[in-house]
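fwd from M.: "can u put these together and see what the complex looks like"

so here's what she sent:
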Amino acid sequence: MADPALRLQALVKRFGAHAAVDGVDLAVALGEFVTLLGPSGCGKTTTLNLIAGFLAPDSGFIALNGRLVQDLPPFKRDLGMVFQDYALFPHMSVADNVAFGLKMRGVSREETATRVAEALSLVKLDGFDARRPNQLSGGQRQRVALARALVIRPAMLLLDEPLSNLDLKLREEMRGEISALQRRLGIATVFVTHDQDEALTMSDRIAVMSEGRIEQIGTPAEIYERPATRFVASFIGSINIVPAKVAEVPVNGFARLETPAGPAIAHVGSASSGRSVMLTIRPERLKLAEAGGAPAGAVAWSARVVRVVYTGARLEVQLRLADGSEAVAEATNDGRTSLGEGQGIVAWFRPEDAWIIAGA
Amino acid sequence: MRSGPWILLKLVVGVIYVFILGPILITAAVAFNESNRSYFPPRGFSLKWWGEAFAPQWVQPLMFSLELAALTAVVATAIGVPLAFAFQRYEFPGKTLVRTITLGPLILPTLVTGIALLQFLTVIGLGRWLGYWALLIGHVIICLPFSVRTIAISLQAMPGSVENAAAGLGAGPLAVLRYVTFPIIVPGIFAGMAFAFIHSFTDINMSLFIAKPGQRPVTVAIMSFLDFGFAPTLAALSILSLAIPLVLVALLGRFVGIGNFLYQEQGRG
């Protein structure tokens, strides 16, 4: 089997007594788009800087295409990186910015001109050659940074929160463009972000990080629908978490539970053992019905409507369960739902939509 | 914005301008007096005092000052660049002490620094250095803080990611310095050089103690001449000495852009 584009093994980086990266293992396949997702301070940017070589690890290995690089300086690693602030050279024109990596590699003048033009055309900036970075909008700077990183045909692409300085509309546009470009070039990419929407929409796989470790790595669907830990469950999207006790030995991957809100059956999920667990259910999988209206086989709990938040396409219904704890259900705004505050109701879900994680 | 505080601010700024520009304009006008008296408004019109100001008696100290200031600026910059890098980029034992000593002349009265240098050179037996070399040393000491600070600020204002970006694109440490760091801080270096030049050119406190007769900067020469009273020649000379730094700053502003020597993102954000 071919070596992965990137392999991190037992990577550790300490700042003083604090381990910013605390034993990270990760493999990025050729052409794969992997996102490091987590809150600020989780070690995702430090990990990226270790890959790029701007920081040296205290221990562990970094291999690019099977070659160990943890002792190489950044300029020998052959990576294309886009920085959060774009880091364009302010004293150079757009063309010179893009040409910089080629100049450092001693590429001939003619070839440089061709490749710079190609790269600028790739990011739809034809004709911007002579502009200075300070004459460009945020989105255009972003594209220049991308062209500058790609023109050297790097072994892989590193993106450090490249969208966080753009306004919402542009961010969504660039999201799609970067994804499309990455797929077209088939370049292995590590993308750092704290934005779960970016992670979910752009990635082949997401590595959710917390306190210097990877909590879970998987496809967006796996991360969202089968969270391994409470941190992953609550960091991505919103989720209802109900403490529960396992009442019977699980059969066929499903467990019978006792919860303060009522008995339940749920997918065993990532809880491997133990009696105290957490039942998780996404708001959009928690349905509402009138008393006795839940379908057969569903878990039904009685609840009371606390508040209905209108968000346009959807209604966010805040509920109080039998034990007094709160839960949220998200309903499609079909125009026929009439829910009043204080109204008694049944909240139901299918066992396969509920997922059990290990207890806190 | 026609509220009270706003009008008051405009008034204060106006008064400040009057007090800056008024004396200069009066001095310039005085230089055109017919007789050797400093009347204002000038009586009669004559260019003879301007001619007088170009007599060897004055041209010599003027040239001396220019040469000294230029050499001081070059030396202060040559020392200032590595010092600024050291202060900005590296941790080393005694850093705070070295920095305090380097920037010290900013807060010490130059008079004191001047006397101290005079004493020091005499005590260590380098009294024969008094004159040109001592002047150069003294001026470098008092001008160094200006170049170090300006260069340090432009280094500090440059985002670290720019250098990382260059390194990531395959530039070794020397190439990063040559193609990225240095070009970005060049306006700061020139600004520091200009500050050093102007500070040296306008200094009198240091020069008073260390200059030897016959090797006097123009400030000291003007000072000595003032013992005989103010004269239109001095007025002409003052305007000349004023014009030199102004022209320098204007030229640098035009060609190097020291006006915005700080790394800043201009225009659209």
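replying to her w this: The first strand of chain A starts at residue 6 and ends at 15.
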